[in-house]
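All the exercises in this workshop are built on plain-text protein records. A learned vocabulary of local backbone shapes supplies the integers on the structure line. Once this layout is familiar, the rest of the handout is easier to follow. An example says more than a description, so a record of this kind follows:
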Amino acid sequence: MKKKKVFGTAERPRLAVFRSINNISAQLIDDGVGRTLVAASTIGDKTIKKGGNVASAKAIGKQIAEKAISAGIKKVVFDRCGFIYHGRVKALADAAREGGLQF
């Protein structure tokens, strides 16, 4: 059985989410070119004190939505990268939707 892959294009880039115990990050990726268009992370962000909680995931979701809209991107394909759609991943996705992204 072949594994399904989420593929991002220039019109609809892939919103890839990565979470670790201490941090969470999100990137908008154009897989056709293999380039990251926009990125946001709790690593190195001085405004977010702790990176491993739901509040920081919401802040990163809001940041990625703001950066994407300023870059002219409104529609994305959501890629949870194998993480369960629950907790921090869900909080990031909801905040990105509230920020104006459609997926």
